[in-house]
Amino acid sequence: MNSLYNHGLKQTQTISNDLTQFETNLSTSPLSLQGAITTSITAFRKTIKEYGDLVSRDIYDPSYTKNEARLNKFNEDLQRFQSKFDKLKSQRESIIHENNVQDLIGRRHIHNSTTSSDNPYDPAASQQQQQTYMSYQEGMYKEKNTLVKGSEQLDRILEMGQQAFDDIVEQNEVLRKIQGKFEESLVTLGVSRGTIRSIERRAKQDKWLFWGCVVVMLVMFYYIVKFFR
Question: Which segments cross the bilayer (predicted)?
Answer without folding.
Answer: 208-225
